[in-house]
Amino acid sequence: RYLPYEMFLPFWAKKQRVLVVLEAEFWFMLFSVLRVKGTRVILLNARISQKSAKKYLQFAWFYKKLLSNVEIIYAQSQADKNRFLALGAKNIEVIGNIKLAAEIKKTQEYKKPDGELIVAGSTNEGEEESILKSFIEYKKQSDAKLAVVPRHPERFEAVYELMKKYADKNSLTLSRFSQDREFGSDLILVDAMGELNNIYAISDIAILGGAFRDDVGGHNPLEPAYFGCKIITGKHFFHQRELFKYVYHVQYVEPDEIHRALMTCKELPPSMVEEKINLEPIIKKILEK
């Protein structure tokens, strides 16, 4: 990842009142140039994963210099604070993950189908097959439907072909959500953007993608928890570890354990979020100078 045209920033960048940078975006030239021009640089929702920390520590001298341009770091957790301290950062305050302050809402109302609706949300390549295999087994004992929502729209066609293979082999019906906006089929490919919260709102179980592979880091669990879905996800959720701390009744499983987790859902209460944060004092501090 890179900041396009970073080398030209000394010529293009103009003084701003404040630069707020989110999470783990650390740009040496951006921070240095704007700080010299009198801009206040603030890191908000700042995090460093355990995996990244090992790499950063090998270049601690560089990150110490980079972070010296930052006025204050609002870290997601105490663990993140400790990692920033190890890199030589100063003036760090732990505020929690700002996603806990976000308003979660749906934009459309859809009719809930008869029987259970399972949504596989934000799936990545390689995850859909394990989910489909598990669903086929589960459906032998349950009147359920599965909606698959790939993380990346460029994969819609490939996922549809995979779903078609399973539908044909097991005599299941298959539809594209973009064609009828309904959930009447056994398998539904959600080939539309911005619909996940609307589908969580009528789903019973959410299989949250991004954590069944070891190179993605998981996806946000707050949305399915907010709508009362029973959440199943993988064990590789290192980018979302802080958020999962606030979500209760989640099953963390390997890909070959998804069927068992689906069966266990019958005995579990819905997942839920038990904490919110108030960002108003932080915003006031950022704007007051």
How would you sum up this structure in a few lines?
With 289 residues, this protein is α/β, with parallel strands linked by helices.
Q: How would you characterize the overall build of this protein?
A:
By secondary structure, this protein is α/β, with parallel strands linked by helices. It folds into 2 domains: 6-96, Rossmann fold, CATH 3.40.50; 116-273, Rossmann fold (3-Layer(aba) Sandwich), CATH 3.40.50.2000. It has 13 helices and 13 strands. Helix 6 runs parallel beside helix 7.
CATH class of the largest domain: Alpha Beta
Q: What is the residue-mean pLDDT, rounded to a whole number?
A: 93
Multimeric state of these chains? single chain
Q: Segments where pLDDT lies below 50 for 5+ residues?
A: none
Structural class: alpha/beta
How big is the Rg? 22 Å
**How do the strands line up in the largest sheet?**
7-8-6-5-9-10-12
How many DSSP helices?
Answer: 13
Distance between the termini: 32 Å
CATH fold topology of the largest domain:
Rossmann fold
| CATH architecture classification name of the largest domain | 3-Layer(aba) Sandwich
